[in-house]
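User: quick one, sequence for these tokens?
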């Protein structure tokens, strides 16, 4: 297959080389997940953390900071010991392969996992890049419309929509140099941090307003 090249509309200063197109199945190893239900997980009990597809869809951002974001744990230690999952590490990508809408395919990039043992759970597709990618780039790129639009014709189902590993492996990535990846990943991660900060401030203001309303009227 002839290699396609692409140039984005907006770029950071100093980058002029075209982006390379690569097949996802050539760039990532597919790891093992488990099928533990939400009922088998706990917010506080257990040593092994488990990434459930529901948390990818509703809770985790494009990049999951394992040092600061709460990840559910497998309550039963015997169950945790019996799993044949691959243990996850920094840079792995976890894709939600099932959803009730076109959010299927949403993913999170794992970072700052430290010594925590983490595995990939129900309705997830864990991926490990063969080569080095800059922190934050894959998580933001794979959640972008530019990539996600490829998944829509591959989705199956009506009430519950899913995507297969085989279909995912055939999708195309468009990848810049490592230095440009680093600029992009850092930029969007900083934006996410700023959004989170303002969300917390907004919630504080809402709580302050509610308290004042409760106390200032009789």
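Assistant:
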């Amino acid at each position: 297959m002839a290699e396609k090249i692409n140039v984005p509309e907006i770029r950071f200063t100093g980058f002029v080389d075209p982006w390379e197109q690569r097949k996802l199945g050539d760039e990532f190893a597919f790891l093992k997940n488990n099928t533990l239900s939400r009922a088998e997980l706990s917010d506080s009990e257990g040593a092994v953390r488990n990434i459930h597809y529901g948390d990818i869809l509703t809770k985790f951002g494009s990049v999951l900071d394992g040092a600061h974001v709460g990840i559910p744990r497998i309550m039963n230690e015997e169950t945790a010991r019996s799993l044949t999952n691959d243990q996850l590490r920094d840079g792995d990508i976890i894709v939600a392969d099932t959803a009730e809408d076109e959010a299927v395919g949403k993913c999170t990039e794992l970072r700052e996992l430290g010594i925590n043992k983490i595995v990939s759970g129900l309705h997830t597709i864990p991926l490990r890049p063969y080569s080095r990618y800059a922190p934050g780039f894959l998580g933001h790129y794979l959640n972008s419309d530019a990539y996600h639009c490829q998944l829509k014709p591959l989705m199956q189902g009506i009430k519950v929509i899913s995507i297969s590993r085989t279909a995912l492996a055939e999708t195309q990535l468009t990848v810049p140099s490592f230095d440009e990846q680093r600029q992009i990943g850092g930029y969007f991660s900083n934006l996410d941090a700023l959004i989170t900060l303002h969300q917390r401030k907004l919630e504080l203001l809402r709580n302050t307003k509610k308290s004042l309303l409760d106390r200032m009227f009789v």
